[in-house]
Amino acid sequence: xxxxxxxxxxxxxxxxxxxxxxxxxxxxxxxxxxxxxxxxxxxxxxxxxxxxxxxxxxxxxxxxxxxxxxxxxxxxxxxxxxxxxxxxxxxxxxxxxxxxxxxxxxxxxxxxxxxxxxxxxxxxxxxxxxxxxxxxxxxxxxxxxxxxxxxxxxxxxxxxxxxxxxxxxxxxxxxxxxxxxxxxxxxxxxxxxxxxxxxxxxxxxxxxxxxxxxxxxxxxxxxxxxxxxxxxxxxxxxxxxxxxxxxxxxxxxxxxxxxxxxxxxxxxxxxxxxxxxxxxxxxxxxxxxxxxxxxxxxxxxxxxxxxxxxxxxxxxxxxxxxxxxxxxxxxxxxxxxxxxxxxxxxxxxxxxxxxxxxxxxxxxxxxxxxxxxxxxxxxxxxxxxxxxxxxxxxxxxxxxxxxxxxxxxxxxxxxxxxxxxxxxxxxxxxxxxxxxxxxxxxxxxxxxxxxxxxxxxxxxxxxxxxxxxxxxxxxxxxxxxxxxxxxxxxxxx
Length: 493
Fold this sequence. Notes:
Number of helices: 19
Distance between the termini: 58 Å
Structural class: alpha/beta
């Protein structure tokens, strides 16, 4: 097999990266070309994404790729879900896109259920979990606030589609990213007109829905010249970063659950058809689109965001901890002293995460953590316990035994948390690949260019290419007792 080279642009909620992926007779290799910060911009009390800065960073990554002096087969972009960019009738962007962490949609979600339809009907239509920041509620907030940008908008583009538009001038709506919006009919896998009417839009305000692997267009001549590349094809990969990450799970059978671990933790199973039962709704589990027509039956869990925000506070105090230091700190204090529910509203976007954790402990009649080490231990243990609670939920829905948990993404490097998770769930944990999202992005492009026919073929190559670490459960009785304490505490609030 001749070498094929693909550029994966992978944007997370705190950072972005450009990856050069090569697929040849030796398998798969990836090389990071650049990494850049993605910071929320706060203006007049609202949170936005700096789309212009992101676009500049993407072009810089393409310039670096050009200096590799290899023939690039295609480019693909993935981002986090739900957020979007508005495009005017003149084809120009209409302001900065809101961040899902902005609070403007919280009241709008309440008003939607009061004025438009019940939660039961919405879940039956979309199969999507209720999160205040879903695209539907963000658009409803703009409508309620008589947003001049929304009124002037010709197109609504989810962020990976928006960035691909800026590169190519072509407009599409990629299925997996659209599936996060709570605007799609879960069975038809197309826009729900009644929901679009509720926000004064129609399907004409969006691009045609395309499946992962569809070629969108080629780099504009002006951009190709600017970055030093030819007019390379741009492919609609699995535009939602979790969909790309799940595509890279190195599983050789279906008896697994996955945990995409980063700022958010996304846990789920892969199924053929959506589950939109009353039990699924009550558990707030979502049905999002995946590769090859699969459904990602998953649940959002607040992940390393809590630790990241504590580290931000500690850095302001002059304490810049390394990862080995964090592990040593967590290992130096007693186990199961206190717990938090990582998904409590207190932790969505507090001005001071350390104080938010203290407040939660006070509200649940626990002693407040004092040392930084106690905070780190509390966060890791609480996440491991939450993972067990959610995994137990998925086993109740799955028609197959969940025999192992694949942890992918940046959190797979956290050896202490991986071992804690294995202890908590009582099952084998396999960690890796770390760059799952970028690998999934690359492999969908490779599939698009004809190197693979199925998701299974992709995963076989990935499994051979990455080094996995295995964790087996230990101290299971001790962790089982800790889990009972976690359940007791987290039901107090």
